[in-house]
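Retry 2 of 3 after timeout on previous attempt. Resubmitting structure tokens to design endpoint.
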């Protein structure tokens, strides 16, 4: 998470509570050369994995999937 996004989260309703006691340890700017997650996929066989990663990596805890929802994701049904 970039410092800019960290600051943005604190400005939304409930953002400071969402951040809670978490600390941001990397105070440097994000590397603009870092590839987007989906661009790392090299094979259609990884579709389910990348779908799961997108599903699970949600910053807002109000909409973040529960552990039960994560375990019921189709990715785990195909293992």
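Retry 2 succeeded. Sequence:
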């Amino acid at each position: 998470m970039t410092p800019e996004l960290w600051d943005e989260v604190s400005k939304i309703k409930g953002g400071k509570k969402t951040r809670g006691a978490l600390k941001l340890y990397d105070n440097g700017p994000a590397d603009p050369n870092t590839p987007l997650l989906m661009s790392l996929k090299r094979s259609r066989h990884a579709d389910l994995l990348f779908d799961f990663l997108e599903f699970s990596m949600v910053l807002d805890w109000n909409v973040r999937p529960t552990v039960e929802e994560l375990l019921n994701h189709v990715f785990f049904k195909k293992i």
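Attempt log closed. The chain has five helices and no strands.
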